[in-house]
Amino acid sequence: MINRVLIRTKVVQNLYSYMLTRPERTLDQALKDLNASLDKTYELYHYLMRLPVELTHIQEMRLDEARNKYLPTEEELNPNMKFVNNRLVAALANDEQLQQFAQENSVTWNDDPIFERLMLDKIIKSDLYKDYMADDEDSMTADSLLWQQLIKQVILPDDNMIDAIEQRSLFWSEDDLDMMSQFVCKSFRRMAEGDDKAVMPMFKDDEDRDFGKELFSATVTQMPNSNNLIDELLQDSRWDKDRIVLMDRIIMCTAIAELLTFDKIPTAVTLNEYIELAKNFSTAASGKFVNGILNNAVKQLRKQGRLMKP
């Protein structure tokens, strides 16, 4: 689930922090922080998977309290139970893998009752909820679709949600929330299809598990040579090397390390990934600049016989 696009992002972010804090912060400490940031990202996936369960439980308690109050109305005595009987939510609540992770890592929103109340109120007031409750279709597919749409259209854009995740972990950002929500919706779809592997593992395989650590270490080890190469290329360009921002250098050094270390990753894939990272995490001109330098770096490395892969 934590794919290489996300791993590259975390590596670059942690390298930036490492470069600002060394020598006080050792390479071993930086690698531990990288692993911690990846662990927390997977934890965010589980928090999002848990949210429908806990919000539904609160709504169920609300209906029960209304039913048992003094002089309840007819509607309160016989409420529409479609939302609380949602099949996807039942599947999430009963999934042993999700239960075990939540217990071992204390994954719950119950310690923030104000957030839960505000989010549930917003869901109930939404057109998605109203249309779902009024629709005669009663199926797992419809139940799953409701929560996919709620995640995308109600929960994700809500400022309270962004504040809630940022308060829970320094490792989480709006970008992490956006990416993990995509994986959550994918898991919801798989559950509706009866896929017994709908809950995604942290990594696809051992290669992906080791990719971040190997890339981080290779970048640090090769950084002096990578910076020398970048400076050589800058001499023939209109860019002043003293005005290159640190993030651009880190992105380019990481890209060069990946080019030289991972033979199975095509050159074009590496270039595209780091050009996008430059666009997203550095200055407005960084995408064009990094594109030019990295393409020239590939030519130089091929000329030197150091880069042989296509």
Write the layout of secondary structure elements.
Layout: H1 4-21, H2 27-67, H3 74-77, H4 87-94, H5 96-105, H6 113-125, H7 127-134, H8 140-155, H9 159-168, H10 174-192, H11 206-235, H12 246-261, H13 267-281, H14 286-303
Q: Please indicate the count of domains.
A: 2
Class from secondary-structure proportions:
mainly alpha
Low-pLDDT residue spans = none
β content, as a range?
under 5%
Counting DSSP H or I runs of 4 or more residues, the number of helices is 14
Our Rg estimate from Cα atoms comes to: 24 Å
The succession of helices and strands, N to C, reads HHHHHHHHHHHHHH
Given the C-alpha coordinates, what overall shape results? elongated
Tell me what you see in this structure:
The structure is a single chain. With 310 residues, the protein is mainly α. It folds into two domains: 4-192, no CATH class; 206-303, N-utilizing Substance Protein B Homolog, Chain A. It contains 14 helices and no strands. The protein has helices at 4-21, 27-67, 74-77, 87-94, 96-105, 113-125, 127-134, 140-155, 159-168, 174-192, 206-235, 246-261, 267-281, 286-303.
Spell out the key features of this protein:
N-utilizing Substance Protein B Homolog, Chain A, 310 residues, elongated, 2 domains, 0% strand, mainly alpha
Give the gist of this structure.
With about 300 residues, the protein is mainly α.
